[in-house]
Design goal:
437 residues; 10-stranded mixed sheet; 4-stranded mixed sheet; globular; binds inosinic acid
Length: 437
């Protein structure tokens, strides 16, 4: 049982962190392959709550190799803060490894992200303003600063100078910002380099070795399929590829290393930031879901837009990622809502009907869900540990999802706690086939 990829099947915030955390218990390595500190994972351990933005979710298992892969963009200020926070709580960080080829978010990336959004005004994307887009843009322009560069003062200075030069015009309002002073920036980043040095490594061999030995490697995606820069609702997307194919690129392994791809989806839908959302609710049900689900961003605290589960978009996610299993999270949030709805097709402009996710932006912006209605349930589901423990109407919703997506539901989340998860036989068999070193 080698490679298992965990991706978001919606617009992010599906609860991937918890799923990865549970699987990491038996995994030999956990590797993050894209995104940056635009992501936020919350993990509850007993009374303790851990919030991560960059460190992979497996870090709470002492010594477990946890890799920040080459495809991730790293804000070293955030990463060093996260490391300090974990150290203070006596978490063993000996397994943490950061790819020397990962790109660094620089102070000017943060400023450019803010300036770009301000320039767009009402047409803003609603980014997390963490500098993600400008950092990936520099990577593609071959002007990026990589983790390995902070280990050499001369190279670092040269690269920063080259990276800033073409941005002078865009950064002119910040010309006097002390953060942009070449000397200060170089000093700050050398200091980060010094702090991060023990963790910097050539990371693909960590995956290769574990895969060669038939051990479980979990590839941890951030954001979600519909935020993918190629396959999402462009331009209202992030600047990386959260889809499963990107696990190979962002971790340095070949496609044959991937055995299973599980997509994580909530039992409803949410989206942060702007962009099309065909099943969005603007009523009391939407507010109820937002409240019951605690739908406020881990990273920015922004309220998330809420809506019904969208089986058209999820069917698309199944194809784009090649999903072999679905993890449905937060089923408990739907308790007491009557009736429930699931979008099974869209109505677009001029009443056109769409069975498949429309590729055209103008269509998608005006598409609205056509729903299948299901009876809800009143029973508390938070104690369910098998599918049989669920009320029949909750099982019916899961069956509708499986049938419409032609993909098995492998795990079901029924509450925030670690134990509040239903493991189906399929998921158990992955877990039990895994060997821990
Ligand atoms: P960026 O990734 O900060 O550039 O933001 C681009 C879009 O992706 C915005 O709509 C963000 O709200 C969204 N986004 C980025 N990261 C996440 C995430 O982890 N969860 C949910 N939405 C995200």
């Amino acid at each position: 049982m080698p490679g298992l990829v965990i991706v978001g099947a919606q617009w992010g915030d599906e609860g991937k962190g918890k799923v990865v955390d549970l699987l990491a218990e038996r995994a030999d390595a956990v590797i993050r392959f894209q995104g940056g500190n635009n992501a936020g994972h919350t993990i509850v351990r007993g009374d303790e709550v851990f919030k991560f933005h960059l460190v992979p979710s497996g870090i709470l298992y002492p010594g477990r190799p946890c890799v920040v892969g080459n495809g991730v963009v790293v804000d070293p200020r955030v990463l060093t803060d996260e490391i300090d926070g974990l150290r203070k709580r006596n978490i063993d960080l000996s397994g943490l490894r950061i790819s020397a080829n990962a790109h660094l978010i620089m102070p000017y990336h943060l400023l450019l992200d803010q300036a770009g959004e301000a320039r767009l005004g009402k047409r803003e994307i609603g980014t997390t303003k963490r500098g993600i887009g400008p950092c990936y843009a520099d990577k593609a322009a071959r002007l990026g600063i990589r983790v390995q560069d902070v280990l050499d003062e001369k190279i670092l200075k040269q690269k920063i100078t080259a990276a800033i030069e073409p941005k002078r015009q865009a950064l002119r309002d910040y010309a006097k910002d002390p953060l942009l002073d070449l000397h200060t920036m170089t000093e700050d980043y050398l200091a980060f380099g010094h702090r991060l040095a023990p963790y910097i490594a050539d990371t693909p061999p960590i995956a290769w070795r574990a895969l060669d030995e038939g051990k479980l490697v979990v590839f941890e995606g951030a954001q979600g399929t519909l935020l993918d820069i190629d396959h999402g609702t462009y331009p209202f997307v992030t600047s990386s590829n959260p889809v499963a194919g990107s696990a190979c690129v962002g971790a340095g392994v070949g496609p044959k290393s991937i055995d299973e791809v599980w997509g994580v989806a909530k039992a409803y839908s949410t989206r942060v930031g702007a962009g099309p959302f065909p099943t969005e609710l603007h009523d009391a049900v939407g507010e109820r879901i937002q409240r019951a689900g605690g739908e406020f961003g881990t990273t920015t605290g922004r309220p998330r837009r809420c809506g019904w589960i969208d089986l058209v978009a999820l069917r698309y996610a199944v194809r784009v990622n090649g999903l072999t299993g679905l993890v449905i999270t937060k089923l408990d949030v739907l308790t007491g809502i009557e009736p429930l709805r699931a979008a099974v097709r869209y109505t677009g402009p001029e009443g056109a009907s769409f069975d498949d996710f429309p590729y055209h932006q103008s269509v998608l912006h005006r598409a609205r869900g056509d729903y299948e209605e299901l009876p809800g349930w009143e029973e508390d589901v938070t104690g369910a540990r098998t599918l049989a423990d669920l009320p029949a109407n909750a099982r019916a919703l899961l069956e509708l999802i499986e049938q419409r997506l032609d993909t098995p539901v492998v795990m079901v989340g029924v509450g925030p706690g670690r134990d509040q998860m239903i493991w189906t036989d399929a998921a158990e068999s992955v877990r039990s086939r895994a060997r821990v070193a």
